[in-house]
Amino acid sequence: MTMDPLLEEARDGSEAAQAALGERFGPELLAYVERRLGPRVRRQSSAEDVAQDVLLRVFRSLASLPDEATLDLFKGRLFKNAQWVIDEHARRAQRFAGESAAPATPVVDEFERTGAVTRADDAARLRALAERLDPIYRDAILGRIAGQSFEEIAAASGENLETVRKRFFRAFHMLRERLGEDRDEASS
Fold first, then answer.
1. Residue 38: left (phi > 0), alpha (psi -120 to 50), or beta?
2. Interatomic CA distance for residues 78 and 66, integer angstroms
3. Longest Cα–Cα distance in the chain
4. Which of 2-16, 93-107, 156-170 has the lowest mean pLDDT?
5. How far apart are CA 169 and CA 140, in angstroms?
6. CA–CA separation, 66 vs 76, rounded Å?
């Protein structure tokens, strides 16, 4: 099996081929980054900047692609690098202690006044809990919350389908434990 011709051209330094790869995978990468960035990171880095950083890193590492690389392998590396870059930006955001953001003001909406809980509230709580998981497990849970199939998550992450399923169920059990801990804390 030989390398995909577009990847081979990009690896050989063709800017046109790199631009074609960016056009092909850029929108999907940007959507992924937008879903994954937390509010603290968004205050310092735009999703476009993070996606651009990912593309540049992957293009710099094209020489390390195996000779039989496919576009699927490239896409898998792209999304793995995306998670690393997002995590790096998040670590930088954690160290930032400036006063650039205005203090949060509480928003009281109809649901808070009535005490009603919606599916959106439940999904938001699950996403918040999932964000605290190890990135390996977090991706599987957030993908499922977003409505992705195990196959789609595996394709986006470049992982084996069974690995994604196992990680999802481990993460699911971790979240159940955390939800139980939260309930215990609330009742005491």
1. beta
2. 15
3. 63
4. 93-107
5. 9
6. 13
Q: DSSP labels for 129-162?
A: HHHTS-HHHHHHHHHHHTT--HHHHHHHHT--HH
Look at the block and give the residue holding tokens 């051209």. 9
Task: Using the Cα atoms of residue 150, residue 155, residue 157 and residue 163 in order, give the sign of their dihedral.
Answer: positive
Write out the two tokens for 127.
């996403």
- Return the SS3 of 20: helix
Measured distance between the N- and C-terminal CA atoms of the chain, rounded to whole angstroms: 62
Cα 61 to Cα 8, 58, 131, 172, distances in angstroms: 13, 5, 28, 34
- DSSP label at residue 63: G
Residues 6+ apart with CB under 8 A from 172: 141
The predicted pLDDT at position 152 comes to: 85
pLDDT at residue 186 in the model = 59
Give the separation between CA 129 and CA 126, rounded to whole angstroms: 5
Stretch 29-40: mean pLDDT: 83
Q: How far apart are CA 152 and CA 167, in angstroms?
A: 14
Domains of the chain: 5-95 (1.10.1740.10), 117-187 (1.10.10.10)
Cα Rg of the chain (Å, integer): 20
